[in-house]
Amino acid sequence: MVESLIQNMEQTNDGGLAQVRHVVLVLSGKGGVGKSTITTELALAFRHAGKKVGILDVDLCGPSIPRMLSIGRPDVHQCDAGWVPVYADAQKSLALMSIGFLLEDPDEAVVWRGPKKSAMIGQFVSDVAWGELDVLLVDTPPGTSDEHLAVLENLKKHRVDGAILVTTPQAVSTGDVRREITFCKKTGVRVLGIVENMSGFVCPHCSECSNIFSKGGGEDLAKLTGSVFLGSVPLDPLLSSSIEEGKDFMQSFPNSATFSAINSISQALLSSLQND
Amino acid sequence: MADVPDNAPEHCPGTTSEQAGKSSSCEGCPNQKVCASGATKAPDPAIAEIGAKLSTVKHKILVLSGKGGVGKSTFSAHLAHALASDSTKEVALLDVDICGPSIPRIMGLEGEQVHQSGSGWSPVYVDDNLAVMSIGFLLSSPDDAVIWRGPKKNGMIKQFLRDVDWGDLDYLIVDTPPGTSDEHLSIVQYLSATHVDGAVIITTPQEVSLQDVRKEIRFCQKVKLPIIGVVENMSGFVCPSCKNTSQIFPPTTGGAERMCADLNLPLLGKVPLDPRIARSCDEGKSFLNEVPDSPSAEVYQNIVQSIKDYCSNRVTEEQSTT
Ligand SMILES: Nc1ncnc2c1ncn2[C@@H]1O[C@H](COP(=O)(O)OP(=O)(O)OP(=O)(O)O)[C@@H](O)[C@H]1O
Ligand SMILES: Nc1ncnc2c1ncn2[C@@H]1O[C@H](COP(=O)(O)OP(=O)(O)OP(=O)(O)O)[C@@H](O)[C@H]1O
Ligand SMILES: [Mg+2]
Ligand SMILES: [Mg+2]
Ligand SMILES: [Zn+2]
User: Fold this and answer.
1) What's the pLDDT band for A7 if we cut at 50, 70, 90?
2) Considering only Cβ atoms within 10 Å of each terminal Cβ, which end of chain B, N or C, has fewer?
């Protein structure tokens, strides 16, 4: 009785996140490894699997998701429950809220120091009216600093299922992601798994595979740190051009190796969330 | 850390920030009154100290990009190697990426530690004429994470500039993290009493990267940092087997070439994707020594030459105006 009362109270305090079933952070200590790309493709894969998905983009200096989903820069509105997210589809199964939407001039550099960023993220994170979602993916900037701490502080009031860590195969990247695992431990975030991105490029002309950024580093890191390895995504020009044009890669290239890779990662992730 | 007193609350905006004494986290802080009075916002005396300290550094170059993973650290490291290949030049490389330091590995200095000397911290030397400083040298294990908020990172950057025994230098190269935040503001601010030659901007060809890089260029303009030029990295991949070129990161909006034309900036060169660059970085070796006759090495050498020319022209310009 008391418990359910407390739960009810928490729910009202939760505001916009009350009906969000799972919250997953996408993190990497390293820049440019494909956090935003993987976030976008996983969201699309979840949607194709019939789930309701949301993306929260908290990269203030370089928000990429609006472009990757071809959403551009809509006007966002507020309702009683907070900011109304923007939907990428008519069925409203893919919702996006980017901190970029709240900036006055999208081309202007956001030259803010940490405390100001933290304050903005703090307000923003708890103030989006997500409605009912199966999964909320949170795309973050690289590093382990103000933005990450601010996001966690605010999301943890609700729930955070854990984080997926994105790395590219080479040591320069896995070295940074190794430190990110420590960040997760220290902040009490469960590592749901590691994704190796940009592993291996198959030449479209002769089918020869070149490991431009080396190979296998993500899997090795998972072994070394006792983390789950969720899979690797090849370096695929069709993926980068879909991302450039904001097209749904998962819909356009269902027969590609990249599609299968992303699909199996999304399934592994979903089942790990549901088995919780 | 001068910016954040020990007794300050967790979200202290820093005593020199505009919010000092006024932000919500300042409530109840014992320093609130002093901060609110504006007394702490006087210019940081460290700026003058750094100015004096670096007066013996002839050229200072920042390597910047709004976008992550475009090759800032790779470029900084190879610029340093190339400049230091002239044994009459003294070169130093400073890594101000506090949360994701890559320079120790790329320079082959993983596991090295800095030493305290009478005149400050001594940097780690790759060669007699090539010194390196990074927070990586202060970490005790490859698992250590630097979970620091802005003000603490700023304090570290100040120490790197003021308390490292740099000696007389021809070139100081500064590698930065992606974005336009504390690290960038701090490095520009702390170097404001010195002469900075300019910034080299790194991008990759696709719009996802260029849209962030344009913001970085605006940042440079805002803080009046001259731009030496733009490098387009990861520009096309030539298959070693069939020699066909693939645009893995496609220049859908015209790449760096179009951006430079639009913004009237020099394009210093286009470096192709080459697996041997990534491998050299992992092994901590200079790609320019490993594969000197590759197309990418040739492009690199041309870019370095343009940067040298830019720096020496600036010196002549100044002499002719004084
Ligand atoms: N598997 C892939 N194949 C081809 N291109 C890819 C792949 N993954 C990512 N990319 C491309 O690489 C670039 C960097 O990816 P993305 O922007 O997602 O990285 P990020 O980690 O979010 O970067 P940042 O640290 O700047 O936020 C993008 O242009 C993206 O389209
Ligand atoms: N032209 C190239 N060909 C192949 N690999 C490259 C090339 N340039 C850089 N790399 C590799 O790409 C990865 C990213 O480069 P680097 O770490 O220098 O980027 P960065 O901009 O410093 O990233 P961050 O934003 O995380 O600081 C590294 O592993 C590097 O070795
Ligand atoms: Mg991103
Ligand atoms: Mg770097
Ligand atoms: Zn080929």
Assistant:
1) very low
2) C
Alpha-carbon distance B322 to B316, whole Å?
10
- What is the ipTM score, two decimals? 0.93
* Residue A239 distance to chain B (closest CA, Å): 9
Q: Which mean pLDDT values do the consecutive 10-residue runs of chain B (322 residues) have?
A: 66 80 83 78 87 95 96 98 98 96 97 86 96 96 94 95 94 95 94 96 98 95 96 97 97 98 98 98 97 97 98 78 58
Per-residue pLDDT at A12: 44
B251/A114 Cα distance (integer angstroms): 33
C-beta atoms of B248 and A201 within 8 A:
yes
Kindly state if the Cβ of A30 falls inside 6 Å of ligand 2. yes
- Please identify every residue whose CB atom is under 5 Å from ligand 4, which is an ion: B 72-73, 102
With a CB cutoff of 8 Å and minimum separation 6, the contacts of B259 are B203, B210, B213, B214, B230, B253, B265
Which residue CA neighbors atom 16 of ligand 2 most closely? Answer: B71
Separation of alpha carbons B80 and B132, rounded Å: 9
Sign of the Cα pseudo-torsion (A164, A170, A173, A175, in order):
positive
Ramachandran angles phi, psi of A173, nearest 5°: -90, -45
Question: Can you tell me the distance from the alpha carbon of B262 to that of B257, in angstroms, rounded to the nearest whole number?
Answer: 9
Mutate to test the interface with A, among B10, B44, B248 (most CBs of A within 10 A): B248
Determine contact, residues B269/B48, Cβ cutoff 8 Å: no
pLDDT score at B158: 96
Q: What is the CA radius of gyration of chain B?
A: 20
B67 CB under 6 A from ligand 1? yes
- May I ask the CATH class of domain A2-274? alpha beta
pTM value is 0.92
Q: Is the pLDDT of residue A10 over 50?
A: no
The DSSP line for B124-184 is EEEETTEEEE-GGGG-SSTT------HHHHHHHHHHHHHSB---SEEEEEEE--SSSSHHH
Torsional sign, CA B97, B99, B103, B109? positive
Distance from CA of B33 to the nearest CA of A (A): 19
- What pLDDT does residue A87 have? 96
Query: What does the pLDDT look like over A235-264, one tens digit per residue?
Result: 999 999 999 999 999 999 999 999 999 999
The residues with which A56 forms a beta bridge, in sequence order, are A97, A138
When pLDDT is averaged across residues A85-90 and rounded to a whole number, the result is: 94
Extents of the domains making up chain A: 2-274
